[in-house]
Structures are given as structure tokens and as C-alpha cells.
Amino acid sequence: QDYRRRLYVSELNRAGLAWQSGQEAEVRALLEHCPADLRNWEWNFLHQQLDRWEQKLALASSNLFGAELSADGHVLAVSAGGVVRLYEFPSVQWRRDIPFTQAWQSPIRLSPRGDFLATLQGETGVATVWNLGTGERALELKHGSAAGSVAWANRGKLLLTGGQDRTVRLWNVGTGREERQFTVEFPVLGLAMAPDDQTIAVGTSSTNILLLDAVSGAVKRTLQSQGPFNSWLKSSPDGRKLAVGNGTAGGYRSDKRVWSLEGGGSLDLRRSEEHTSELQSPYVISYAVFCLKK
Q1: I want to staple 83 with a disulfide (CB 3.0 to 4.6 A). Which of 97, 147, 172, 279 is the partner?
Q2: Rounded alpha-carbon distances, angstroms, from residue 63 to 104, 115, 265
């Protein structure tokens, strides 16, 4: 049994590398070698890509800072080379470029309907909202300190920013006014809003991941990561899972996991009793993101 599981992990890792390299036939062959009774969500993800191969997109850039797909799957934003380039998806037809000087902590976020884009200059804490129909600047918001995180509420009426001043600020995009402000114990590095807009997930410079009431700011629950600097958060569409990743120097105390917000357990993407995360390659995080969208 141990040999078969090791074979599964080895073949799946090789299939993932082949997928990244665009080797369709190799991916198919390696997936077929995987024992059928051990196939899990990561196998299903790669297998699904074989049916979508014609929709693949190669981004040739040496300074790619990030990419974002709208919730409806129709708009792709790519941050690189001093602009955010917008494409129709999956046709990958270019729409327009938005000027944006990238730097460390300069995330981009598409609104739920893909009609607005929020960009954040981390050092200045200035968030800019762009109208994607016209390409014009619609709104500029000043967090008040250096900021590293920005997120949309799912109804698209509120924008959230989080900063080094340990605050989470909720802005009304229609008026440009700050509606609410919550203070936490540590600098805020990551934000995600639950699908019902009732809970805010907050990643901090500590190991704490806070789940805040979106109205009162009260802490509903605290998740404990294995490492600090939790800057990447993503809620599943049904609100039952939360993917969290941190960024540490040299991978020290790196932690990548998917939390169950119902049962309280988590799937460690590095090591798991279910052996799902014996996959040690970086693309395992991509698996989690795509599975959360299911």
C-alpha cells in the first residue's frame, strides 16, 4: 500500500510538471498510471485541464507580479511591466491596459462582476478603483498608512483595505467614504470577504487568522497558522472553506492550507494524514484555488 501511494505521488508530481510545460500527451499518460482508488481532487483537477487545453494562456513576462480572474470567469487581469493588462476570458482577447507601477505589496483585485479594478500601492497605502468600461480612474482611497491588502465585498459595493496600522477599513465605492473601521492586534497583510458579506477573514503578521463580523468587527473565531505573515486568503464560493498561504523568507515556517470553516479542521498542502499534500511542488497551491471555485 505504501508503494502504491508513493507511486501515485510521484506520477502526479510528474504530471503537474508536464502540465506546466504544456506536454499534453505526457500529462495524460502519467495520470493513467495513477492507481484508480487513490485518485483525489488533485488528480481530477489535472484531468479536467486536458479537456480545457485549447483555452490555455501563456504569459510571456519576466516581471509578472500577479494575475486575477473575475468571479464570473469573463475577465482576466495581468499585472506586469508597469500596466495591468485586461483580457476577455477564455478568448484571451486584449481589452485595454491600466497604468500601474508595480512594487512589493501591490495587489490587484477585480470586482465580482468584473466591471471595476482595484489596485493598491502598498508603500503609500493608496487604493485606486478603475472603471474597466472606460479605463478611467473612478476613485482614490487613502488607507492612512502603508497597506498590503485589498478585497471586494461580494456585492461589489464595498472595498476593504488592510494596513500596517493594524486596521481593516471598509469603503463605500459609490461615495468614497469610509463606512467602518476595525482594529486588530497585528498589522494586516491579507483580506477575504465571505460570499454572504457577513464575515471578513484577516491575515496578519502573526500566526493568527481572524474571522471578524463584518458589521461589528467582533472576532467570531481565530484560526492558528503554522507560520506568520499570512497574506494570501481565498474563500470558497459556498463560504465553507478558506485557503490561506503565507510568505516567509526562504520558506521558513511556510504554511499553505485549506481550512474547513464548519468542522474546524484543515488540509495541510505540505503534509497530510490523507497524504493529499505529499505533493511538494509549488503548483499544489493552484490546485487549491481551482478546487475552491468548484
Answers
A1: 97
A2: 12, 25, 37
